[in-house]
Design a protein that fits this description.
Elements: H1 3-17, H2 21-60, H3 74-85, H4 93-96, E1 101-102, E2 110-121, E3 127-137, E4 147-148, H5 151-162, E5 165-166, H6 168-183, E6 187-196, H7 197-200, E7 211-218, H8 219-222, H9 224-233
Parallel strand pairs: 2-5
Antiparallel strand pairs: 1-4, 2-3, 3-6, 6-7
Helix pairs in contact: 2-3, 5-6
Amino acid sequence: MAYENTFNKDFARKLAKAENAEAYLEAELAKLKSRTLELNSAREHMSRGYELVLEGLKMAFPDLDLNDKNLVGTPNRMARALIEVCSGMGTDEKEIFATTFPAENYNEVIILKNIDYTSLCSHHFFPFTGKAHVGYLPDTSHGSESKVVGLSKLAHIVDCHAQRPQLQERMCSGIMESIKSELRPAGVMVVIEGSHGCLSCRSAKKANASMITSSLDGKFKEDSKLRAEFLSLIGLVKQ
């Protein structure tokens, strides 16, 4: 295991703030043990289910060789993959925005565009992938309480909402509502582009089709020029 990655992602910032780093780490390790055992039990349960899926597939197509070396261990791999793809449900959104900075006098739009994501369609459990574009307008009327956030946090909130079974529409509005709730900006806008496996691999089989959704609030909903600026800056329209 690459403990350096775990340290930097999960522990370093919190340990820096802890009054007693050793006591904090002991408590977190106890939580880690409990949660890891819960996830392992879930993996075992799902793995048994995937075994039934493969057995059902063989019933449909008797030529399928379940003893094929490429299928040995597949139920376990499928279960582990599903836990990873859905890991956003185990993320605390408030923790993502735990560190903010004063907006001071900056009252122009802030955008992070082309945020890659992978999500899972809740209708067919096929993946959909694409790019998210997130923008917000700090509300400087709050004075010293006006907030901006590090750019990595905008990428993390996209991952938090992407990594779960859902519809693209819900993912889009969920990201918008999280930013609205935690940063209290004057406006927020989210645009998501997605290519869906359930459209490209089955039914209509349109491999090049792309779905675009948007969710907006505050100044972005009220001001058409601000919306146009956002869409121009992310490259979806030309001014």
